[in-house]
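Lest this sound abstract, we think one record worth quoting, the chain in one-letter code, the fold tokenised, each line plainly labelled:

>
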Amino acid sequence: MFKKSLIALALTTASAASFAAVDIETGTEAAALNVSIEGAVNMTEVTAGDVVAVLGAEYAVGDIITFTFAGATLDVATVPGTLTAVNGTNDLDVTVGLLSAADNVVTYRVTEVKDNGNATLQSTVLATFTISNLEFDTATVLANAKTTVTYAAETSTGVTIDAGTKSSGDMITTQKQFSVDRSADSDFDAIIDVEEQRLQFTDNDVVDLVEITLVDDAGTTDFNATAATFDIVLNGSFSYLDTDANTAGIQTTGITTSSGAIAAADILADTVTIKGAAAGTVTITIDADAGAPAAFSEAVIPTIDYTATITVDYTDSGTDGAGTGAAAGEATVVTGEDVGEWVLNGSVIEVPYMPMGPNTQPFLRHTNDGSQSGDITLRYMVEGVDTEYTDSVTLVEDAAPGVRNLLNEIEAALLADGYDRSAAGFKVALEITSNVPADDVKVTTGAKFINQENTDRLSIGVISSN
């Protein structure tokens, strides 16, 4: 009997010793909230989940316990005046009384350590404080990724007790309820075929598509927004798809979406807007043959960088998180999201500035240091006249490798459109496309200005493919 008693005492002592420090992390984070930033935007205060602190040391009357909150402003009026840490394992419960609550720091003093009649180990280890219904200012909650609580304790003489690696926990986290997940989505990725005069893609098709997956995380957030629909603004260039130059706007049936019809007014030269899409994957397809068989045969396909700006319309969770006073809202999900590009299968070099005029002698040398021959074509913009590059014209067919002076060909192309540098000065930007590998081509350009007294030179530089 004596040996059994010693063994029992050893086991209960080991049970107390195995909890060497407080654990506020496990229970608090199990009860934590994940607040929807959009849904909670008009709430006055957020009521947090329970703060749960399991004691890991022996406490006595007069000990001091402190809860420090960070990340949001605590409403001190919701702090309880007394708490009891109930011990469901050992004999001793711990009761504390409030000393102060200010500046996100709540301090209690142990007022009683009481036997709860469990008839087990006389210990405060495993006694558990639970603080419910603490409220925090919503604006400060939403301004930070998380709201945390840290537990500290000391004896009446200032000696730290019950410190450990689990003395802090996350009470509230915040998350955008609406997002875009493109990890498995397709981008616009067509390659424009310069051998086909940029009238189709290298796969002999005129169709390309992009997928954009719109996400509503209502299942993982608290105080959710509802009735959400998304608007997608696709940024690019769409004027080449216009099938009716006599009608205002862009007239085309070549842009479709899996989310429904696109209103004609929402198709502009630089943007296409898809309205009212639901969460899920939206597919946007550009098919110039749909309803306009001649569209690509009449217009050169431009190189395009596509981006998307996405907004969401929703109804928030009200002022109390339960729908009271719910209001409509709008949020930007992403801005300028890269959704692909169309590129050429050749060299494209842009000369951003070339002066032309009676007293100006420009020069432009095209160097192909590779082994392939290919056509050289030109598009241009005249300052003060054009707002986009003109249609492509061929300067040289099947140009062999080497160095080539292109000035005469460029001047002839400009003259054909009425721009005569011998008659009047003007400034022009050039886009020179060569149907050869991009790395093989460079353009060297500049100009010489002549007056009666001297000659000045302008070096524009050596330019490689984009």
